[in-house]
Amino acid sequence: MRRTAARLLTTAAAVVLFGSVLGTASAAPLFGESEFTLPNGLEVVVVPNHRAPNVTQMVWYKVGAADEERGWSGVAHFLEHLMFKGTKTLKPKEFSELVARNGGQENAFTSWDYTAYYQTVAIDSLPLVMRLESDRMHNLVITDEQLLPERKVILEEWRMRIGNVPSSQLDEQVEAALYLNHPYRIPVLGWSEEMAKLDLPHERRFYDTWYAPNNAILIVAGDVTVDQVRKLATQYYGKIPRKALPERLRPTEPMREANATVELMSNRVRNPIWSRVYLAPSYHGGDTKYAYALEVLAEVLGGGANSRLHKSLVLDQQIATGAGAGYDPQRLDLGKFSYYVSPRVGTTIDAAAEAAQAVVAKVLSDGITAEEVDRAKSRLQNEVLYANDSLSQPGNAIGRALTTGSTLADLDAWPDRIGAVTVDEVNAAAHAVLDGKTSVTARLLPAKPGTPGADKPVPTQMLPEQIR
After folding, report:
1. CATH-assigned architecture of domain 260-392+405-446
2. In sequence order, what are the residues at sequence separation of 6 or more whose Cβ sits closer than 8 angstroms to the Cβ of residue 288?
3. CB atoms < 10 A from the CB of 53, how many?
4. What are phi and psi of 165, to 5 degrees?
5. Is 80 a catalytic residue?
6. Which of 33, 43, 68, 80 is catalytic?
7. Contact in structure between 345 and 319 (CB atoms under 8 Å)
């Protein structure tokens, strides 16, 4: 499980980190990044990295699965696929063929709050990928000739990634049980029954509504300068007209009044897993004052071999093959906090669950120690040391932050804010989220012999490389 902004996104070089932790007046750019905005509203972030003559271009749109029309789940992810199907100037698949012909790699991904597209190429191909990406920002052509076959592809993707993967099936059910009203309860790929009816009018309307320069962030990381990127971005993106954007309407999540338990049994399960999930504040949803303390709490409780859960259940008691905790504060709305255990052979799932709950209960009754908090903060901060060796890590960190309500200043200040967390704040956060609060408990179990349909896979026809 990925727990923190640092884990998901990593961060920057040691010199930046230690200057930040020591408390400079204003945090230095974590990646050495610079930003500017074009007249049409396109945000541009440049991350110079001169280790190799390569560059990664990313375009992040501030729209995702949680912005879909109710009853049409999967529209955002399906549009991600359709963005590769041709424009007014490019034939279907020509985008990918041109990138590959120039030695590049490209792909895309969708989440609840954002959709992103990226290419990594040699520096001399940056004008090419800028031309291609800016073209499909406003010139996409969608016809039934492209849509109907691709709809079969996304259904096949669902079968491979969800329908035939018990843990993924259970995750879907847990999200649906955890969020009572918020669209985070709806899978990013969509419900398969609704995916099967996705059509041209809904895809076109989603594209026309949300895909615009003033709803996008261009991130260029690699062997470039700010002046080079400004010139190219102005040339290729600057002429695209801005649009009037609707408000991102998100319903209020009501108070949970009851606990829920979700259980899935399958012959394809080899290792049982027990987990418990709570609604939790994020950087921008709920009681946000707890977000940084919850990051530290997740590290103390489940962040590696020295964490409370792993040490107690895996090393000391030797009743589990794995145990940990998860927390992701980077959502536009409410997030979640979870912990889990996978029992060893010979230990029942109930015994493992009871032991995991005992570890959490001890945290709530006795508290986390100052020494544990200091070690956790150091581990979290140390994870930022090597991110600048990568072209993609800074872009992922920046894109995810900017599309979920944070600013570059927030990202740059992350080491300071983690360093400022106190033991009292961590213990207060634990009580605020875990102490007597309603939750969803999940149990993933091997099927009992003779269970009808427990080992029946959803039919698949396509190879994994055919799924984007």
Report:
1. 2-Layer Sandwich (3.30)
2. 281, 282
3. 10
4. -125, 100
5. yes
6. 80
7. no
